[in-house]
């Protein structure tokens, strides 16, 4: 039973991270390779402060790690298999009609 709880926690963390479009974009950029925050912020067109909040969430979810490089910090996916998981999710066919939207995350029964 403990393994199921651990699996559920891991999936919930992944889902929480993917629930925000900016965090999805960060993960997709990091899927291509490690990056410094300044480069990520520029690539995503957001402020470093806003990026910092999203990187903190992704770190807390266990999806990215901060690697010290001299006086700078570089971010990368915590596990290379996450890149494969993102590829699989991107290529999966969703059983959703094109003209429908996902309900708000706060709504019970949300996708």
From TrEMBL:
Residue ranges annotated for the HTH arsR-type domain, each copy included = 4-100
Q: Which UniProt keywords apply?
A: DNA-binding
Q: Has UniProt tagged this entry with the keyword DNA-binding?
A: yes
| SMART domains for this protein | HTH_ARSR
DNA-binding is among the record's keywords:
yes
Biological process (GO) annotations held by this record are: response to cadmium ion; response to lead ion
Q: Which residues form a coiled coil?
A: none
Name of the protein = DNA-binding transcriptional ArsR family regulator
Species name for this entry? Nocardiopsis composta
């Amino acid at each position: 039973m403990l393994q199921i709880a651990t699996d559920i926690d891991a999936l919930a963390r992944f889902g929480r991270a993917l629930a925000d479009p900016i965090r999805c974009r960060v993960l997709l950029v990091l899927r291509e390779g490690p990056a410094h925050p300044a480069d990520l912020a520029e690539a995503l067109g957001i402020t470093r402060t806003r990026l910092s909040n999203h990187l903190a969430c992704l770190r807390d979810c266990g999806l990215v790690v901060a690697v010290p490089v001299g006086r700078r910090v570089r971010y990368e996916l915590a596990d290379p298999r996450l890149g494969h998981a993102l590829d699989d999710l991107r290529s999966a066919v969703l059983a959703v009609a094109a003209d429908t939207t996902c309900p708000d995350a706060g709504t019970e029964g949300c996708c």
